[in-house]
Amino acid sequence: MPQPIQFLPPRQDVLSRRATIIDDLRGLLPADCVIHEARELVPFETDAFISYRRVPLAVVLPRTTSQVAAVMKYCHRYGIPVVPRGAGTSLSGGAIPQEDAVVLGLSRMSRIIEIDYANRTATVQAGVTNLNISEAVAVDGFFYAPDPSSQLACTIGGNIGMNSGGAHCLKYGVTTNNLLGVKLVLVDGQVIELGGKHLDAAGYDLLGLVCGSEGQLGIVTEATVRLIAKPEGARPVLFGFSTSEEAGACVADIIAAGIIPVAIEFMDKPAIEICEAFAKAGYPLDVGALLIVEVEGSEAEMDATLENIVEIARRHQVMTVRECQSATEAALIWKGRKSAFGATGRIADYICMDGTVPLGKLSYVLKKTSEIVDRFGLRVANVFHAGDGNMHPLILFNANDPEEAMKAEEAGNEILKLCVDAGGCLTGEHGVGIEKRDLMRHQYTPAELAQQMAVRAAFDEDWILNPSKVFPLEGRG
Amino acid sequence: MLIPNTEADAAYIIRNAAAERKPLEICGNNTRGFARANQPAEQISSRGLTGIVDYDPAEMVMTVRSGTPVSEVEAALAANRQMMAFEPMDHRGILGTHGAHSREPTIGGVFAANVSGPRRLTAGAARDSLLGLRFVNGRGEIIRAGGRVMKNVTGLDLTKLLAGSQGTLGFVTEVTFRVLPVPPAVETVVISGLDDEMAAKAMAAAMALPVEISGAAHLPASVRSRFIGNHLPEGEATALRLEGLGPSVEVRVQKLAAVMEAFGPVATLGMERSLTLWREIRNVVPYADGTEKPLWRVSVAPSAGYHLVSALRLEAGIDAFYDWQGGLVWMRMEADPEAELLRRYIRALGGGHATLIRATEAARADIPTFEPLPDAVAALSARVKEKLDPAGIFSVGKMG
User: Fold this and answer.
1) Pairing assessment for the beta strands A58-60 and A102-105 based on DSSP bridges
2) CATH code for the structural domain at A12-105
3) Is residue B221 located within the same domain as residue B347?
4) Nearest to A198 among B149, B201, B327 (CB)
5) Chain B residues in contact with A390 (beta carbon < 8 A)
6) B216 and B97 together in one domain
7) Which of B282, B302, B327 corresponds to the end of one domain?
């Protein structure tokens, strides 16, 4: 029987000074920026990885970079752990606090500082939501490319922390490929800038290192991101196949033919049923799997690309091809896909895996995944970004049954090990957080983990920043 | 020169060097040797580690040993109509390192120096295509970073850290990178007669259109004749590249040309000349001049490039052309490198960085090759280096 995921034991000296720390924080920040009443702390106990929760010591919600710097300087001086938080949508527990930690929430730093069309950049505070950026520039024909499913809520600071992707990164890349610069508050309160409106930051690629570091290297308070001219049109097409294997093989053939659609999304039968019941997107219910393939460009361009894709799909005995005739239909197709997690949450509790595998291994890993889940007597729905091998099996369980919850975690761990063994990795875009922390040993050798932790120590020697995450708790040296 | 033939040999050599605190200078085939350490050191070359380890065109991913010549990688890709999207430049022309005895640039060097070309503007730098690597750190340990999948946020991204670290953090033995299909059609729209400022405006306007430009360069009159055998139209040339499926490129060329006509006379080059032009821009052909005149590679915000050049022109003899929508400035100085002046103007214009790609030995002695970093960033970078190379054996002083 596996154990629940552990957190670092709280630092007793910190807990015993709780009242003083809260007083001090209230001295550093305006009164309304410090939250410490028990009932007000409840919303900060967990994130979207809801199986685990911890009440933090306090929450601070600063409005400026200098306020963030003041908090960091203070916490660093007194050895108080700090857990950064954007919108709290992490699926891996990246924003779950611990009893001795101050949660540093960036939600009030939600201003768009500058939009610069001549250089195609937006400079924003870290608490701006992902969708806000695209909405702010849409009227002028631009967009910000990474589009995680939670884009309505999730913040750009959190996206940087987890190097978030989304459905459209097959063509445009993930956060790290669209991030030009950050303002970063270091653990001791120093403020540095990395990158800017120019391409390629000077010196070592610290920007690339910070992106995806899960709040362990510093606090991003501002970001400069790349804007892209919005394509003339975009068109999703729905393809239904008899089996998941057939759909997986079709994806591999599309890529092999040199066609790079903007997105290739995959749903298996359970996922189709769940999403259709919720979104009424008109998904075919007689198929074993479906693909949503989106192409973009001018009408002529989309026609030409789609013609090629349809031809490939026919070679895989495609059962249904549905091209949408209107923007409404297109939106509906995406609505079904984008509501997959929410719709699943309505019928059961679930944990969402995020392993990524080489394209050639997709069919194999899908098949093995259902075998693993069967063995635990659970159900799984698969909905994921097939074009880049980023799988999201949703393992359904009943959270009120502790034994079943443990089984779900165990099945999840087996699936992730399978992904690593197939030449992939534990997490494509959700981050390690606490969820996959103890599996890191399966992907990395002790020397490799030690090297990563050493680099981490160059930023935060005392493990103040989000300390229970990413690296196994034992053997931290 | 030390030339290990296996990764294990490399690790052995480095472990011993670390124990003796013996400095090493990591290199490939020395075709891009524009940066120096501040102490003499024996070279350890990747040239013994060659060959394609894994290449499945259907997955668009290639794994190669670091000492493999770029030409071999490009040939294997071309046979499958694929390419490295970031268009790595060849430094041999401007550095004069392609003599009779000289060797080919290595793929390890491409990533260790994060070398990119015109398509970097929209397709990302070498570091963006790099999915994973294996390297030997300064302790002599073999470390894998990243992997072979496009999306990967499993632990710290040491892959990015090693990319562009110029051999100062580790000896890279193997790289895995993403490749893309070669676009079947290529066309270039040239707008003639624009000064640098108008060219910057035209390029910004073009990049705002939904036509997917994959290259935007401005070639002032002083360099125009050096391209495609002097076949560019008369006057300054502002060049915009479009790539993709034939019919799609045709449609986009029409749309782009219709908007660009407001800026100046518009012409197209056709596929053959387009391919040549962008290869020449990539390789900085106008300054492959056989001289040792100081040559800078400057990255600033696209709208700052022409400001920088016009400001410097008042105080020094310079010649320049622009890639990356005006944000990449290749700048040849007539005499003095004017490093302080240049770097002061870059800071005043919103920041960026200047790399001294070519200079006489005498000039190099006094000028940092790479942009000096602010104190806090330099201190952080030094701590990072110390964590990968605790004995300080890899080219101390070369970077930052």
Assistant:
1) parallel
2) 3.30.43.10
3) no
4) B327
5) 149-151
6) no
7) B282
Q: What is the pTM of this model?
A: 0.96
Inspect the interface and report whether the beta carbons of A204 and B381 lie closer than 8 Å. yes
Contact yes or no for A156/A129 (Cβ under 8 A): yes
**A 134-153 → B contacts, CB under 8 A:** 140-142
User: From the list A177, A197, A259, which residue is nearest B124 (CB)?
Assistant: A177
Judged by a CB distance cut-off of 8 A, whether residue B377 touches chain A is yes
Domain of B15: which CATH number?
Answer: 3.30.465.10
Sheet holding A179-185, edge to edge: A112-116, A121-125, A219-226, A179-185, A191-195
Q: b/e string for B268-295 if b means 16 or more Cβ within 10 A?
A: ebeeebbebbbbbbbbbbbbbbeeebbb
Residues B238-256 have pLDDT tens digits of 999 999 988 889 999 999 9
Check residue A24 and give its pLDDT.
Answer: 98
Q: What is the pLDDT of residue B400?
A: 59
Q: Are B388 and A454 a contacting pair at CB < 8 A?
A: yes
Is residue A342 very low, low, confident or very high in pLDDT (cuts 50, 70, 90)? confident
Rounded-to-integer distance, Cα A205 and Cα A21, Å: 36
Instruction: Using CA coordinates, name the residue in chain B closest to A159.
Output: B153
Q: Å from B36 to nearest chain A CA?
A: 15
**Mutation site for A-interface testing, chosen from B55, B120, B156, B214 by largest number of A Cβ within 10 Å:** B156
The domain A233-340 is placed in CATH, from the list 3.40.50.300, 3.30.70.3450, 1.10.1040.10, 1.10.10.60, at: 3.30.70.3450
Residue A258's CB: how many other CB atoms inside 10 A? 18
A184 pLDDT higher than 60:
yes
Tokens of B71: 């030409």
Residue B376 lies in a domain: no
Taking alpha carbons only, the member of A226, A417, A419, A415 closest to residue B149 is A419
Structure tokens at A136: 């702010």
Q: Bigger pLDDT: A345 or B338?
A: B338
Taking only residues 346 to 365 of chain B, the set having a beta carbon closer than 8 angstroms to any beta carbon of chain A reads 350-353
SS3 at position B241: strand
> Is A170 strand, coil or helix?
helix
CA B194/CA B335 separation, integer angstroms? 27
Owning domain of residue B196: 185-282
Among candidates A198, A212, A232 on the partner chain, residue whose Cβ is nearest the Cβ of B210: A232
Is the model's pLDDT at A477 over the cut of 80? no
Q: Which of B61, B207, B373 sits opposite A202 (nearest CB)?
A: B373
Domain count, chain B: 3
Domain with CATH 3.30.70.2740 in chain A: 348-429
Asked if residue B398 is part of any domain, the answer here is: no
**CA nearest neighbour of A98 among A384, A474, A466:** A466
Same domain, B163 and B218: no
CATH of the domain at B247: 3.30.70.2190
Question: Please, which residues 361-390 of chain A have a Cβ atom closer than 8 Å to chain B?
Answer: 385, 388-390
Q: Which residue has the tokens 């097409």?
A: A237
Strand partners, B242: B187, B213
CATH 3.30.43.10 range(s) for chain A read 12-105
- On average, the pLDDT of chain B sits at 95
Given this structure, which CATH class describes domain A112-229? alpha beta
**In angstroms, what CA-CA distances link A208 with A161, A442, B128, B153, B155?**
11, 24, 9, 11, 12
Tell me: do B107 and B177 sit in the same domain.
yes
Q: Does some domain include residue B299?
A: yes
